Amino acid sequence: MRSLLGALPCLALAAPVPRGVPPSTLTVYAAASLTRAFADLGDTLQGLTPGLKVTFNFAGSQQLALQIEQGAPADVFASADQRWMSQLVDSGLVEGVPAVFAHNRLVVITPRVGAVRRLEDLARPGVELVLAADAVPVGRYARQALAALARLPEFGPGFDRRVLANLVSDEENVKAVVAKVQLGEADAGIVYLSDVTAEVAPQVARIYIPDAANVIADYPVAVLRHAPHPDAARAFVGLLLSPTGRAVLRAGGLIPAAGD
Fold first, then answer.
1. Residue-by-residue DSSP string for 138-201
2. Does 106-208 carry CATH code 3.30.420.40?
């Protein structure tokens, strides 16, 4: 981590880019649930680094990993789980050891006026549930949480099967789940707590999952081995892992990983 953080002062003191020289473009591939926090971090890094433009591809981690494996010119990959980062590590596409930089929790969201008012209602026949697909980190976490609820006496065996019988849509990322509930196209969805932003909160109600059944999502980040702009990529990761980065993550509803 120290070597990554050390890249920041060098970039912050970089000389202005001469006129006529096109700016460098750092490309960050990041899980959709990181949209708010990473956009703020990108603005911060651009302010520190004359001539640098930071662009993002926000999508499901599984989609991003596939694009990187197919040769997409990305510099940094931030996943919403270890599974897709490990796949890129195993493929030799990651520089060094990925660092876990944040955590997240799950929450059930529903329309403000609707059929679901408590977790038990998710299993009621006729309820329309939307989740991310199992390949998407939040979709897998949601199914793990439902299985954990079924092990609690107040829900009982088979609760997860009854809930999943109400599944009407598998989405490609968490933002799509949020959108369907916001629009009233589903009675409930399971998303990250950080996805209930100030813009979303007035349109949905939250039902909290008990700690005994909730799933803590781990977010790893890494510079990619064939990054077109490796120095800028290391600076972005350094900023992300710094106290400034942790403050931005916290403001975005995420739980920052402990610093060293």
1. HHHHHHHHHHHHHTSTTT-TTHHHHHHTTEEEEESSHHHHHHHHHTTSSSEEEEEGGGS-TTTG
2. no
Q: What is the pTM of this model?
A: 0.86
Assign 216 to helix, strand or coil: coil
Which SS3 state, helix, strand or coil, does residue 235 take? helix
Best CATH choice for the domain 2-103+218-256 from the list 3.40.190.10, 3.40.50.300, 3.40.50.150, 1.20.210.10: 3.40.190.10
| Side-chain half-sphere CA neighbours of 1 within 13 A | 14
pLDDT band at 140 (very low <50, low <70, confident <90, very high): very high
Alpha carbons 132 and 4: distance in angstroms, whole number: 33
| Residue tagged 């990959």 (tokens) | 77
Rounded-to-integer distance, Cα 223 and Cα 218, Å = 17
Fill in the amino acid letter for 144. Q
Q: 236 is written with which tokens?
A: 């972005």
pLDDT tens per residue across span 77-92:
999 999 999 999 999 9
Task: Look at residue 132 and give its three-state secondary structure.
Answer: strand
pLDDT category, 114, cuts 50, 70, 90?
A: confident
